[in-house]
Amino acid sequence: MADPQPLEPLVRMDIVKVTAEGPRMETDVVATEVPVTIMVDGLEIATLMGTPEHLDDLARGFLFTSGLMQRSGDFLGCEVDEAHWVVYARLGHKVEPSQLFRRTFTSGCGKGVMFSSPLELAGRSPLSAGFAIAGVRVQELANWFRRHSDLHHATGGVHTVALSVDGADPELIRDDVGRHNAADKVVGRALAMGVDLERTLLVTSGRISSEIVHKTRRAGIPVLVSLGAPTHQAVLLAHDLNLTLIGFARQNRFSIFAAPERIT
Question: Which entry of 58, 69, 78, 109 is annotated as an active-site residue?
């Protein structure tokens, strides 16, 4: 039997399209979804449903935002089995199995998970107030963001997350069927690049729930912008953490739900 081959981020499938003229057979593209397993030193950390690309970034970002590593230097490297969707990561410290029993399953697509409780997160120190950005630039970034996800435009089935440094047009953008995975991929790549995350904005296409606020705070990112809406727990948590939370971002308007002082 031949070895399995890696899947692309999108696949072609036969469909029946129904219009006013009636049904007809067509071929369309859909976003690929696979189970991605993250292993550390032979220990299975988690299996996430996600898009099979940038899996090294996903592992690095997930291990950091879930609380299993504290700094970018803890991640020593990884090997990716792209045919079986397994990432074998190496850390500079041992992950204790007891840590994995403290997991909290989140509301994210594909069942997100973090290894610290919301109560622990709420007790962390608030972000400093040093970074600021002009409101007009937030609007421009929202407009830029809508034009720059080829996979979303092709399939309509993924979430997109981008990272803006000092308000510049993002050079780092990732897609995934899970919005928390897309955030982890961006954070993971930013950690590998040594980006100063304290001077960045995270821009996302999806709903902002509390786990996205958690991941943003873990990364030290002070501003979180979404084209969609936040949940009430996300707003409460953002207030506690002094994280600027913006929803319904459009070309000519947006709503600030927490920490408006950073928007000038």
Answer: 109
